Amino acid sequence: MMQQTSNNNEGMPNFLGIGGWGCGTTWLFINFRRHPEIWMPPRKELHYFDRSPVYPSPSLLAEDKLIRRLFGREKHHRQFRADLTHAMGKSLVYCRPNWFLWNMRYFFGRCSDEWYRSLFAQGKGKVTGEITPQYSILDESIVAQIHSIMPQTKIILLLRNPIQRTWSLLRKKGCAQLPPDRIMRIFYSGKDTRDDFLSTLAHWRAYFSEEQIFIGFFDEISENPEGLLKRIYQFLGVPEDDEQGLSYAREKVNVAPAHEMPRELETLLAKDYLDSLKQLSEMLGGYATKWLTEAEAVLR
User: Does residue 122 contact residue 98 with C-beta atoms inside 8 Å?
Assistant: First the structure.
C-alpha cells in the first residue's frame, strides 16, 4: 500500500495519534491545534495508512486515479467528493489560504510516502503530527512499513474502558433505544465497534520502543485533563502550554447523546470483555485495573 522510502524521519510527522475510537482524540486534536509549538494539518484524520477498503475507514484515498475519485459511484468516491467540497469551502469561508493550498495537495495529489511527507511541510520548525483513530486497527505488516519510513516517530494511544467506549459508539449510531439483543448483534457485526487494545499494543510495540509510545486514558480527560496534556507535552518535548491554553482542556467535545446503558447489555459486554480486561490490568494497571474491577462487580 505504501511506497518505501529512506529509513529516516526527515520531513515525516514527529508523532502519530493512533486512537482509539471514542477515546478523546478529537479533544486531543483541538488542544494540539492551540499549542504554539505544535503544527497539525487542517484535517484531523489523514487516513493514509488505512486507506485500503479492507479497513472500516472512509477509504477516500483508496483509488490512485483522480478521475475515478471525482466521478466514481462507489461509497469511498462519494466520501472523497463530500470531504473535498467541505474542506475547500471551509478554507474559503475562513479565508485561510494555507488551508486551501494544503487541501489542494491532499485531495489532488497522488498518494505516496513523499506525498505524505509533503503534507507536513507547512509545519517546518514545529513539532508535527496527525491523529487517525483507525490506525489502532492496522495490520502488523502496515505498522512495520510505518516504522520503516518514520522509525523515530512517537506514538500516542488513548484508551477507554471498552464497555463504556462501546456504549458511547452505539449511542452515536442511534442504537440506544433498541433491545439489548439487537444492540449486541450490531456490536458483533462491526469491527469499528469492537475493541482489541491488546492487538493494537502488540502490533505497535513490536516495532516502536516503549519510550516512543505514550498511553493515556479517557478517564483522565474527565478527572485531570490539564495533567494529561502536560504529560503528553512532556512526551513530545514541547513546553507546557500557558495557563490560558490549558484552561481549554476541560471543554467537552464530540459527546454522544446521554442514555443509561441497559443492565442486560452491560452484563453482556462485561462478559465479552472480561478476559481482555484481565490482560490489560496485568499489563497497564491503574485505570485498566479499575475497569476490570467495575466489570467484575457487574457480573456478581
Answer: yes
- What is the domain extent for residue 41? 15-61+111-299
* Three-point CA angle 190, 192, 198, nearest 5°: 110
How do residues 192-235 score in pLDDT, each as one tens digit?
555 689 999 999 999 999 999 999 999 999 899 999 999 999 99
Nearest-5° Cα angle at 227, 222 to 229 = 90
Whole-number Å distance between alpha carbons of 46 and 34: 19
* pLDDT tens digits along 7-21: 578 899 999 999 888
**Whose CA is closest to 18, among 190, 194, 153, 169?**
153
Domain count along the chain: 1
The residues near 118 (Cβ < 8 Å, ≥ 6 apart) are 11, 105, 109
Other CB atoms closer than 10 Å to residue 42's CB: what's the count? 19
pLDDT at 97: 93
Among candidate residues 136, 141, 166, 162, the one with its CA nearest the CA of residue 45:
136
Please indicate, yes or no, if residue 56 is contained in any of the structural domains. yes
Tell me the residue type at 64.
D
